[in-house]
Design a protein that fits this description.
Elements lengths: L7 E4 L15 H6 L1 H7 L3 E4 L27 H13 L3 E6 L3 E3 L3 H7 L3 H4 L4 E2 L14 E3 L6 E3 L6 E3 L5 H16 L4 E4 L27 H13 L8 E5 L5 H8 L8 E3 L21 H17 L5 E2 L9 H5 L2 H17 L4 E5 L20 H12 L4 H11 L36 H6 L4 H14 L1 H5 L3 E3 L6 E8 L2 E8 L5 E4 L8 E5 L9 E4 L4 E7 L1
Parallel strand pairs: 1-2, 1-13, 2-3, 3-9, 9-10, 10-11, 12-13
Antiparallel strand pairs: 4-8, 5-7, 6-7, 14-15, 15-16, 16-20, 17-19, 18-20
Helix pairs in contact: 11-15, 12-13
Amino acid sequence: MSFKEKVIYQIYPKSYRDSNGDGIGDLKGIKEKLPYLNGLGIDMIWLNPIYPSPQKDNGYDISDYTAIDPIFGTMEEFEELIAEAKQYGIEIMLDMVLNHVSIEHEWFKKALDGDPYYQNFFILRDEPTDWVSKFGGNAWAPFGDTGKYYLHLYDRTQADLNWRNEAVQEELFKVVRFWMDKGVKGFRFDVINVIGKDEVLKNNPMDDGKPEYTDRPITHTYLNKLNQQTFGTDPEIITVGEMSSTTIENCLLYTEPSRKELSMVFNFHHLKVDYENGNKWTTPPFDFAELKSLFHTWGEKMSAGNGWNALFLNNHDQPRALNRFVKIEKYRKQGAEMLATMIHLNRGTPYIYMGEEIGMIDPDFSSISDYLDVESLNAYSLLIAQGLSEKEAFRRIKAKSRDNSRTPMQWTNQEQAGFTSGTPWLGLGANHEEINVANEIASPTSIFAYYKKLIQLRKSYPVIAEGDYQAYEPEHPQVYAYLRSLNGQQLLVLTNFYDTTTTIDIPEDFAEAKILIDNYEETKLQTTLQLQPYQAIALLKRL
């Protein structure tokens, strides 16, 4: 089965299932839930970082690439998880953070101690550029008392690695091979399109300096070398690159199979459609025309150029998509199924973020003290400094905080939602008595049952896995629709993004088509089709 037929399930390990009562999810907890994941039908589990880390950036600040952080368990438990998952036909994808290491990593410590070999592992300069860190402030910090500065595109505790040094490349390739030898069959490469820095770094006031280090041509050279010297030797391995501020043109280059770089790419443009003037901490209604335009443009161009998208609406860095796109008070179920249809029948590999398959929503915290995410707390202070009231600043954090998706998985209606026997590291969603796995798997008409059906459709119909992509009725004010075609079959997917009924004209020959999936019952097919609030329907016909 190729990666085009597969569905990948993302787990934020801290929040999935705690097996020992310390309030933090762990590897044994994930292993315990493999039968559940097997029942859903997924093919691969992507784990956010599980390596030793000072946790200044949720484990993306790695201090040891080839060990397991004791908060999650042991290497032996990881090996058991891989072996048991394979029994169910499920593989593991690890998060590889190869752009930077924690300043607690031994390479950085040796560099600080004056070892010139390790100093060349980092990007050190006498004069810093004007680049701005992605986490705010200057992207350079003093390198001890040497008078030099080291580059950190992210937190100042995350020092960027010097990929121009072949010794760095070889060390990182060794890391990938280490995990391949453990049986890992998937790698998600964090912010991989910023690894290619030029030899001479230049000031650039445009867009915080991003053009100087984003999608540089040499990045393609590095990825091809990484492919050829590590995962490219195993055709079963799936890779996905997280692409920061990227372009379609580059993503085609990253994923066109003959170039031997990556299987697929994540981009984030579609999750900024509810940002006012590019500012995350604002709450305008989402821009539906922009959302549609992005999906159509990326869909058509990646299809035409033989590239491949990773498809998603939720992850560990985003608030829950249901809260962003759906009026959940009345239409949580229909909205969840509509969004799932949009993603799962699309051209690309779908990713499910834990809890999405049961329609989890933001936790409805009542105070800023409920939030732990450093980005949210910094933003709250900044909003107040800009003159907003505490009430308004909190309202914005509540809408956009990354902690919204990091609350513990809701297994049961019991105390602590079946996540832990202790006190959870982050508060639970107040809604877990209603929204939980136990309720969902008991019902044949649940959101979970609908996801299960979508996953099976991708495996059963090549037109879903392999078909091309064409926008349908792109100007419709409330429907996102597309056509997929392959070998004489055509699939028309219609999704109503609003809580009001609407009509859409469909081609005459689709009025006789087979309904592949529909989140409403008894839809009568006719050339002018009436769609109910948040309805999703897919029609299949032979050409």
